[in-house]
Amino acid sequence: MGYLDTANLAIAEMREFAEFEPAEQRYIRRSLDVGLARADAFERWARNEQETASIRRQYLAYQELNALRGAAPNSRNDIRLDSYIGRLVRVSVFDLGEGCLFGFPAYRFLYERLLGPDARPWLPATFCAAAALPQIAPERRKKLLHSISEAAACAPGWSRRKPGFFPDYLPADEEIGLGED
């Protein structure tokens, strides 16, 4: 039964990922390469000098991830709360500022994989804090803040289950469905 639950979860996550915009999908895969050290992101993702510079900044921003993994506060009275939220907001501002995550669902999907299930309770607040900062353009800020549902913002509890699907790199011709048969 556990295997079926895991398979069903992975399929649901694949469906969720498929609903994201192509730019979000690409950014999530790139970010997982950078954040999980899966591959050389420069080689895989940099199509021009602008993207090379963006990936370089992302590597710098994602240095915070090691300190965040496994450090999620246990409660709102935990002494690690300020440090955890501050670091998570700093990394989140980078990702939201890149303009490739268009709403909370893609943000949550990415950060659940970068940080694990312990981060889930903190993601709605962190997303709202990062999206509301002046580094984000006003129109974009409005769209981001409208993307979080009341259910996500006010969830009474969060799953402790680890994500089952981690999207990976696809060569460009496969990415748009032009692979050879």
Explain what the structure shows.
Helix 2 runs parallel beside helix 7 (104-115) and helix 8 packs antiparallel against helix 9. The chain has helices at 2-19, 22-35, 41-45, 49-61, 65-68, 81-97, 104-115, 123-132, 138-146, 150-153, 172-175. It is built from eleven helices and no strands. It has 181 residues and is mainly alpha-helical.
Calculate the terminal CA-CA distance, rounded to whole Å: 35 Å
Q: What do the pLDDT scores average to?
A: 90
What is the N-to-C succession of helices and strands? HHHHHHHHHHH
Indicate the proportion of strand residues: under 5%
Number of helices: 11
Principal-axis shape equals globular
Q: Over the alpha carbons, how many angstroms does the gyration radius reach?
A: 17 Å
Runs with pLDDT <50, length 5+?
A: 176-181
The total tally of domains equals 1
Classification by helices and strands: mainly alpha
Number of beta strands: 0
Helical amount: 55-70%
The profile of the biggest β sheet is: none
